[in-house]
Amino acid sequence: MIVIDTSVVIDRPVGLCFDFMARGYFDHLRRWNSAVVEVKKLTDGPVGAGTRGRQMHRIRGKDHGRSIVVTEFQPDALFALNVAEPEGAERHYSCRYTFAPEEGNRTRVDVHFELDWNELPFKLFRPLVRRSIARSIEMDVQRRLKASIEELAEPSGIMGQNQPMVVKPTRGSSKG
């Protein structure tokens, strides 16, 4: 099994970070997780313990699906997901986010990630696979997630499906 722990300090209050990452998980995950190509909520109502969803990840050019369930949901403190039903080679997946206030209205987000696949390359090259996954998670959390939350123009709470994300430009022109 591969276990990775990382953290980031975000220059926004705990409530905003939790709203973006946990309550807005299905709306915002693709914005900061570079491996996710699709994420869909399968249950009705707000995100909370028991909420189910489906993720599609692209790993080395191949898509892998995963059914997930929210296993822990403590507002402004903890959000955790596990694989609902292992599929294909994946035997175990778990991701746990903890939120802690920091001085200056900032938030420390700690991420605990676990993954186990039943594939020969995964077993034979575990150190290389772990290093690759760790680099990707650290880039996504320490740069993409941090930037996604800090660039919010108005940190005023949950940004759900009905509220468009407003982002202020940080570099260069927005023309593509």
Explain this structure.
- By secondary structure, this protein is α+β, with helices and mostly antiparallel strands.
- The protein has one domain: Alpha-D-Glucose-1,6-Bisphosphate, Chain A, domain 4 (2-Layer Sandwich).
- Helix content is 27%, strand content 39%.
- It has four helices and seven strands, in the order βααββββββαα.
- It has a seven-stranded antiparallel β-sheet.
- A hairpin with a 3-residue loop joins strand 6 and strand 7.
- Helix 1 packs across helix 2.
- The protein is globular, with a radius of gyration of 16 Å.
- It starts with a strand and ends in a 26-residue tail after the last helix.
- The C terminus is likely disordered.
